[in-house]
Design brief:
single chain; globular; 27 strands; Aconitase, domain 3; binds alpha-methylisocitric acid; seven-stranded mixed barrel; binds iron/sulfur cluster; 3 domains; six-stranded mixed sheet; Aconitase, domain 4; alpha/beta
Length: 647
């Protein structure tokens, strides 16, 4: 039977289950990656599994998020990850080597392979033809230990690309257009697979920009074919032997198809505070801008930054604007330094940051109060920049550079860029120097160093007969993990310190939440649609667990967050009738009697609202395997128990 590309790769890696949309499948994972803000937790969990060495083809530990060392905490985390990596057979990408997804694409991306990463933008690897999925740290730890990764078989959404991108319009505009069409929930339960004659004109990093922001569609992952362009990219990275041609069968049946005509696209921007709030730059108009940030795992490749440098060359940024540029990797930065492009950026007035996530995760460069910040990043969620009153717009590198020169949001087609300025070729040979990638030791004898910032993580408790508690918070639609567990320069240093983080949980929604949760000793959370969208951080589940949250009842969940809740032993329940949401208020006492029987039984069961005296129905949409996980109080307990039961 003819297949889509995603189906072909999944089939090759299938360990268990039937590839029918919605049914749980288990796949074998070839590669894993972690970054430092989720990695400490993932490695603590991996260590607790007692496996002496990772069992993947290759596992990578990157340091790219927690790069401000304003105290010992981040440095402690780095040392822990460095030593744990060395001991357990993991390659360690040292601070300064670059953003995990960019470096992974350059140095390790492998068409046809599977990659599981503890970061929601892991699908960047889809640009080189991988099935690359973002997950919680615990799922990544299980994969490192040789376990399969379980997901509901996604539906395959085909995006047919026709035509060719016009001058000054780039890959970012393609994904912004896709977000405009599909919205931040449009990809939930789906793999987005790109195909069509428009693919061939896109370079690998451009494809990766598009698959990267598939995360913002809520998609399981996104993927491009592996073709001559992929081969040339791999060859230029000195890895041509990793190439294999891959594409969908010509008559492959997609579950749905949309077509995007690249020739018709224009520069776009996602307006505050959501990546799908997209309009044409010209239609938004010349709003005054205070800050421009160029970089992040979405747009910091060699090609992106060469175009930026070409636009800035010989010019000066506007008087009252701050332009910061963070190259995606040491390779990119090094090449820009050698060919003079870095100098063009500096002369124009850019502030050059190190190769890391930086402002994208609120690690510095918070804008001033009420500022407008224009960024090439992938998320503009409320408060993520570090300044709640700031308005963040997401744009292409070309639009960002034009805006930095003009001081107002500007369509790059309107500022007189010469026709050949942006004609930049992909290099025949990238500068290859892996001196910041430390290989593991040969014997597993490295001593793991644990500074005082490394604290134990909370474990769930076995499910009890009765689960009860008050509604601790009632929330709207599209609550992000940045609401649930904020990041930024003051909190990222505590990613391995759950007790510290617990005082900040859900504060952007309600300042009084942590104190209330502690006073009540736990309870329930109630939410609207798409609860937990955004990051893969399992802290958004582990911290509520620490605060005693037993269940979240929502209109719908984002995929990774729902998995993280389940892995932590917190019940992710969905209202069968959305109007019930309106009948529940903060402080209502909720009771689930015979919880074990109910979790075991049918998908739907009732919860009592003891305060208001009515019962309502919820759905527990998880596989039998995950019911076991919930009953045992989370995946780690479950895995240990199974080990005992079978041993
Ligand atoms: C993000 O972009 O939000 C992050 C920071 O990369 C996260 C991971 C994290 O929360 O540490 C992600 O996308 O998964
Ligand atoms: Fe880093 Fe931002 Fe990419 Fe997350 S989205 S990995 S914080 S650059």
């Amino acid at each position: 039977m003819s297949k889509t590309l995603a189906e072909k790769i999944l089939k090759k890696h299938l360990v268990q289950g039937e590839m029918k949309a919605g049914e749980e499948i288990a796949i074998h994972i070839d590669y894993t990656l972690t970054q430092d803000s989720t990695g400490t937790m993932a490695y603590l969990q991996f260590e607790s599994m007692g496996v002496p060495r990772v069992k993947t083809k290759k596992s990578l530990a990157y340091i790219d998020h927690n790069m401000l060392q304003s105290g010992f905490e981040n440095a402690d985390d780095h040392k822990y990850i460095e030593t744990v990596a060395k001991k357990y057979g993991i390659y360690f990408s040292r601070p300064g080597n670059g953003i995990c997804h960019q470096v992974n694409l350059e140095r390790f991306g492998n068409p046809g392979a599977t990659l599981l990463g503890s970061d929601s933008h892991t699908p960047t690897g889809g640009g080189i033809g991988m099935i690359a999925i973002g997950a919680g740290g615990l799922d990544v730890a299980v994969a490192m230990a040789g376990g399969a990764y379980y997901i509901p078989m996604p539906r395959i959404l085909g995006v047919e690309l026709v035509g060719k991108l016009p001058f000054c319009v780039s890959a970012k505009d393609v994904i912004l257009e896709t977000l405009r069409i599909l919205g931040v929930k449009g990809g939930v339960g789906k793999i987005v697979e790109y195909f069509g004659e428009g693919v061939a004109a896109l370079s690998v990093p451009e494809r990766a920009t598009i698959t990267n922001m598939g995360a913002e569609l809520g998609a399981t992952t996104s993927i491009f074919p592996s073709d001559g362009v992929t081969r040339a990219f791999l060859a230029a990275q000195g890895r041509e032997s990793d190439y294999q041609p891959l594409e969908a069968d010509t008559d492959a049946a997609y579950d749905e198809v949309i077509t995007i005509n690249l020739s018709k696209l224009e520069p776009m921007a996602a307006m505050p505070h959501s990546p799908d709030n997209v309009k044409k730059v010209r239609d938004i108009g010349h709003i005054k801008v205070d800050q421009v940030c160029i970089g992040s795992c979405t747009n910091s490749s060699y090609l992106d930054l060469m175009r930026v440098a070409a636009i800035l060359k010989g010019k000066s940024i506007a008087d009252d604007i701050s332009l910061v540029i963070s190259p995606g990797s040491k390779q990119v930065m090094n090449m820009l330094a050698e060919n003079g492009a870095l100098s063009d950026m500096i002369s124009a007035g850019a502030r050059i940051l190190e190769c890391a996530c930086g402002p994208c995760i609120g690690m510095g460069q918070a804008p001033r109060s009420n500022a407008v910040s224009v960024r090439t990043f992938n998320r503009n969620f409320y408060g993520r920049s570090g300044t709640s009153s700031a308005d963040v717009y997401l744009v292409s590198p070309e639009t960002a550079a034009a805006t930095a020169l003009q001081g107002v949001l500007s369509d790059p087609r309107d500022i007189g860029i010469g026709a050949d300025t942006l004609a930049i070729d992909m290099p025949q040979k990238f500068m290859i120097n892996d001196n910041l990638i430390a290989p593991p030791d040969g014997n597993g004898e490295t001593e793991v160093v644990r500074g005082p910032n490394i604290r134990p993580f909370p474990l769930g408790k076995t499910l009890t007969e009765t689960v009860s508690g008050d509604v601790l918070l009632k929330m709207d639609d599209n609550i992000t993990t940045d609401h649930i567990m904020p990041s930024g320069a003051s909190l990222l240093p505590y990613r391995s310190n759950i007790p510290h983080l617990s005082d900040f949980c859900l504060k952007p929604v309600d300042e009084t939440f942590p104190a209330r949760a502690k006073e009540k000793g736990g309870g329930f959370l109630v939410a609207g649609h798409n609860y937990g969208q955004g990051s893969s951080r399992e802290h958004a589940a582990l911290v509520p667990l620490y605060l005693g949250v037993r269940g979240v009842i929502a209109k719908s969940f984002a995929r990774i967050h729902m998995a993280n809740l389940t892995n932590s032993g917190i019940l992710p329940l969905v209202f069968t009738d959305e109007s019930t949401y309106d009948q529940i208020d903060l402080g209502d006492a909720l009771v689930i009697r015979d919880a074990i029987g109910k979790v075991d039984g049918k998908t739907k069961f009732t919860v009592e609202n003891a305060t208001k005296g009515f019962e309502f129905e919820v759905r527990l949409d998880v596989s039998d395997r995950l019911k076991g996980v919930l009953k045992d109080g989370g995946l780690l307990n479950h895995t240990k128990k199974q080990g005992k039961d079978h041993g």
